[in-house]
Specification:
The protein is mainly α. Helix content is about 75%, strand content about 0%.
Length: about 300
């Protein structure tokens, strides 16, 4: 049967069934929701840095950070496809189910995305901004995924630098010398990641234990991990207020105070009564806190 005969065959949809989930699988592979959030932090870095940046450069920076984050996310799933099969929250990923072939060609695409993103930042912006774009992807893909995730309970602490570099990439696109405000916001992102992820790890502690991943609650136990989440959240909330002493205004203070206070309350409830429900509430509170902080930091500069 020729190709034209197959194409026009009445049962051609049965012979070659469509793949409505293929696009979804590919998009999920690159963790685009995480990439979008990291891109927003880079844009906030631009917003809080004195100076002007042409729109096309803003778009270049946003796309560079988005693509570099996507490449790191895809590498994470490529590298961990075997261990992902051991956890309920990751066993439906495309490489695990076979929806996408676990082929070395993916590594070529991942590398190409990273080269394009870093190269665009270097050519259109400056080498400092490009360096931070690269470091964000490198810390998530290599330092966190390859070096630390299965070796140390400090994995997400060091790996949390990936988000900090996005803020610095945005700020450096405007002014490579970097003032104190971008560094403080980078510190806030660094302190935000551990309690955010540890809350999720507490909610899924059995899965991480089964997969052999030494996340904090697996290593020290849930009660102690919940207490550490509380203390780290308090450190985050206090640090988030420090930009007030370096030029941030009342709008930023309101967002940082409300978001940080809300996160601390949820972390206190988690420490008081650790459970999957309180852990997930703390996890979602971390997202609320970060969103309020980023929006407030941006509005503070625009108003």
């Amino acid at each position: 049967m020729s190709y034209s005969q197959v194409k026009n065959h009445p049962d051609s949809t049965t012979l070659y069934p469509p793949r409505p989930g293929l696009v979804r699988d590919v998009l999920g592979l690159f963790k685009l929701r995480i990439g979008f959030m990291i891109m927003l932090t880079a844009l906030v870095g631009i917003a809080v840095t004195p100076g002007a940046l042409e729109l096309w450069k803003v778009l270049t920076l946003a796309l560079a950070v988005f693509l570099s984050s996507a490449s790191a996310g895809a590498f994470n799933q490529y590298y961990e496809f075997e261990s992902d099969s051991l956890m309920a929250r990751t066993r439906n990923r495309a490489f695990v189910t076979g929806a996408l072939p676990h082929s070395p060609l993916w590594l070529l695409l991942i590398g190409l995305l990273l080269v394009i993103s870093v190269g665009a930042a270097a050519v259109c912006l400056n080498p400092v901004s490009a360096g931070f774009v690269f470091l964000g992807a490198f810390f998530y893909a290599v330092v966190y995924t390859v070096w630390l995730k299965r070796r140390s309970a400090w994995n997400i602490v060091v790996g949390g630098l990936a988000g900090s570099f996005a803020v610095l990439a945005g700020a450096a696109a405007v002014d490579p010398s970097l003032g104190p405000l971008p560094w403080l916001l980078a510190a806030v992102l660094f302190l935000w990641t551990p309690p955010h992820f540890w809350s999720l790890a507490i909610a899924n502690v059995e899965q991480y234990a089964a997969a052999g991943v030494p996340m904090l609650p697996v290593v020290v136990g849930v009660p102690r991990a919940a207490t550490i989440v509380l203390w780290s959240t308090m450190a985050l909330a206090i640090t988030a207020l420090l930009p007030m002493f370096f030029g941030a205004g009342p709008v930023y203070f309101l967002g940082a105070f409300c978001g940080g206070g809300y996160f601390v309350v949820k972390a206190w409830r988690l420490a008081r009564a650790p459970s999957r429900r309180s852990a997930m509430a703390c996890f979602f509170a971390s997202l609320v806190q970060l969103t309020l902080l980023l929006v407030a930091a941006t509005l503070d500069r625009l108003i």
